[in-house]
Specification:
This is Ketol-acid reductoisomerase. It catalyses: (2R)-2,3-dihydroxy-3-methylbutanoate + NADP(+) = (2S)-2-acetolactate + NADPH + H(+). GO terms for molecular function: isomerase activity; ketol-acid reductoisomerase activity; metal ion binding. The protein folds into two domains: 178 residues, Rossmann fold; 128 residues, no CATH class. With 323 residues, the chain is α/β, with parallel strands linked by helices. The radius of gyration is 22 Å and the shape is globular. β6, α5 and β7 form a beta-alpha-beta unit. It contains 16 helices and nine strands. The structure holds NADP nicotinamide-adenine-dinucleotide phosphate. The site of NADP nicotinamide-adenine-dinucleotide phosphate has 24 residues, from α1 and β7.
């Protein structure tokens, strides 16, 4: 696999073009500001009544209604929550002239058929591999964030060049761009969210904390051990890789990890990971996401309430009152 770097990318496919950024949230704000600072003509399309409208105007951007924004844009990036993309696309489609391009930062809605773009449109994906806040701060520091780029539909014959130019304008070429597909990006992303970093890791921190507290360790000490140290681990892995992280910790910690890790992450874990991957690939998770949207996020709201009220959070507040 080749990483495409900044100096290999032609900026011309985007020069003199107008980009509409629809949705001014986590990705929308960062992408709009990076594009603007790269000299691209940007307009923000934001629904009426949104608190993001004054924010975008304070950032110096022009804000209009989404339909108006896409009407004279060459490329419209649709950056609202994935489960709301089908309704947004239905609203925007009549305003998209033939031959225009639409783009996404996640492959889910297109890959799983939540929406089917008109055949005359170019359909791109530019997916920075991290949150918008980091995309923006890296850009401002003269650095960049790795991004995956893909083309779902190439009506013009110029879709790939446009996607690469867009990724370059985001600053991603400074770090490297990987050519992927909507399927590969969304399957790997959804799998990780559920089975690894965002799903399994927080739950294992909680299970560790509960185990120590049930054995009589104070809630604060258990928190420092089982939750706070994750930041140290992440920093070491980022700086040195997994192998370097293991060499950097004490012999005691390294031996403990070598003996304990495989007892926790056994074949059963791998089997359940494979089951999660299958449910991602089959679209079962995407169905769940749409059901959650239709219930006005009942499950998510309940879980957030439970997390906030948990004794683990109370221990954190006692340890870090201003955090
Ligand atoms: N967050 C990340 O770290 C990340 C990383 C890579 C890719 N992505 C992808 O980037 C895309 C955008 O995600 P995000 O996290 O940036 O979203 P987000 O922060 O939740 O963005 C919300 C924005 O979308 C608007 N919005 C919400 N519902 C809407 C609707 N029904 N109709 C029109 N506008 C609506 C919001 O407007 P209001 O102010 O009116 O609510 C707000 O401007 C998704 O495809 C996501 O998978 C996200």
């Amino acid at each position: 696999m080749d990483m495409i770097r900044e100096d290999q990318i032609d900026a011309a496919p985007l020069s003199g073009k107008r980009v509409a950024i629809i949705g001014y949230g986590n990705q929308g704000r960062a992408q709009a500001l990076n594009l603007r600072d790269s000299g691209i003509d940007v307009v923000v399309g934001q629904r009426a009544g949104s608190a993001a409208i004054p924010r975008a105007r304070e950032d110096g951007l022009m804000v209009v209604a989404p339909v108006e924004a896409v009407a004279d844009a060459d490329l419209a990036m649709l950056l609202v929550p994935d489960e709301h993309l089908p309704a947004l696309y239905r609203e925007l489609e009549p305003a998209l002239s033939p031959g225009r391009a639409i783009g996404f930062s996640h492959g889910l809605a297109v890959h799983f058929g939540l929406l089917t773009p008109r055949p005359d449109l170019d359909v791109l994906m530019i997916a920075p591999k991290g949150p918008g806040t980091a995309l923006r701060s890296l850009y401002r520091d003269g650095k960049g964030m790795i991004a995956l780029v893909a083309v779902h539909q190439d009506a013009s014959g110029r879709a790939r060049a446009l996607a690469l130019a867009y990724a370059k304008a985001l600053g991603c070429g400074r770090a490297g761009i990987i050519e992927s597909s909507f399927e590969e990006e969304c399957v790997s992303d959804l799998f990780n969210e559920q089975a690894v970093v965002w799903g399994a890791v927080p739950d294992i921190l909680v299970a560790g904390w509960q185990t120590l507290v049930a054995a009589g360790i104070s809630e604060e000490v258990a928190y420092l051990e089982c939750v706070s140290e994750l930041k140290l681990l992440a920093g070491l892995i980022e700086d040195r890789g997994l192998a370097g992280m293991r060499e950097a910790i004490s012999n005691t910690a390294e031996l403990g990890a070598a003996l304990g890790g495989p007892r926790i992450v056994d074949e059963g874990v791998r089997e359940r990971m494979a089951a999660i991957l299958a449910s991602v690939r089959s679209g079962a998770f995407t169905d769940e996401l749409q059901r959650e949207r239709d219930s006005d996020y009942a499950r998510l709201r309940e879980r957030r309430k439970g997390d906030r009220a948990s004794p683990l959070e109370a221990a954190r507040t006692r340890l870090f009152p201003s955090g």
